[in-house]
């Protein structure tokens, strides 16, 4: 057992010595390589000679063409005035105050045409009625205030056939009118069956006239 261990140790020592020798040889090669590089860098660089051929072929340049004389009759006439011609001076020009003033026309924007409002043709009342000439009394600002509770119930039951909504809508439309003629035209258009000579219609129209005149 001991003999085997001794042999293994010897084998290791042998290999280690071989490796040391190889390392020394590599270091020597590296040192020689570095020395060669340093010598090459320190050596002067020799300039290479360049052969230049100065033999240049001479190019034959043609001689200029001879000038051909042109007769004076063929030359263009000079448009410049002759020395004897009197040129205009600043004294011959008109003064600024003598120059006509030209005013640029001012274009006015077109005025849009407003279509004429067609006048409504009122209906003609046939006959003569008392409410046309009677005095309406004290003027009011609202037709509703000119109608008493009794008259309102009478109008709704007789003229508007117990339809309160129709009565209220009609009073609102008549309040928006501006004349009695328009109110009569409204009545003829919406209530053609009313008897314009009856007492109840007389009372209704007289209430309208207190507002519309």
Summarize the SSE layout with pairings.
Blueprint: H1 2-42, H2 149-158, H3 164-175, H4 180-190, H5 199-212
Helix pairs in contact: 2-5
Low-confidence stretches: none
Q: How confident is the prediction overall: mean pLDDT?
A: 77
Rounded Rg: 66 Å
User: What sequence of helices (H) and strands (E) makes up the elements?
Assistant: HHHHH
Number of strands: 0
Treating each run of at least 4 consecutive H or I residues as one helix, how many helices? Answer: 5
Summarize the main sheet: none
Strand content: under 5%
**Termini separation (Å)?**
152 Å
**What is the general shape?**
elongated
| Structural class by SSE content | mainly alpha
Share of residues in helices: 40-55%
Give an account of the 3D structure:
Helix 2 packs across helix 5. Helices cover 41% and strands 0% of the residues. With 213 residues, it is mainly α. The chain has helices at residues 2-42, 149-158, 164-175, 180-190, 199-212. It starts with a helix and ends with a helix.
Structure, briefly:
The chain has 213 residues and is mainly α.
List key phrases describing it.
41% helix; 213 residues; 0% strand; mainly alpha
């Amino acid at each position: 057992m001991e003999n085997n261990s001794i042999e293994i140790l010897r084998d290791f020592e042998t290999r280690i010595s071989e490796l040391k020798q190889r390392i020394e040889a590599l270091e020597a090669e590296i040192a020689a390589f570095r020395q060669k590089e340093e010598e090459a860098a320190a050596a002067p660089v020799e300039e290479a000679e360049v052969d230049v051929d100065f033999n240049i072929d001479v190019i034959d340049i043609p001689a200029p063409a001879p000038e051909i004389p042109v007769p004076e009759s063929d030359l263009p006439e000079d448009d410049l005035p002759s020395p004897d011609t009197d040129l205009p001076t600043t004294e011959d020009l008109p003064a600024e105050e003598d120059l006509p003033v030209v005013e640029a026309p001012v274009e006015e924007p077109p005025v849009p045409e407003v279509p004429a409002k067609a006048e409504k043709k009122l209906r003609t009342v046939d006959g003569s009625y008392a409410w046309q000439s009677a005095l309406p009394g004290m003027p009011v600002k609202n037709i509703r205030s000119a109608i008493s509770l009794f008259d309102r119930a009478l109008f709704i039951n007789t003229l508007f056939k117990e339809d309160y909504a129709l009565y209220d809508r009609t009073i609102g439309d008549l309040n928006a009118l501006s004349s009695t003629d328009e109110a009569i035209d409204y009545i003829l258009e919406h209530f053609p069956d009313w008897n314009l000579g009856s007492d109840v219609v007389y009372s209704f129209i007289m209430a309208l006239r207190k507002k519309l005149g």
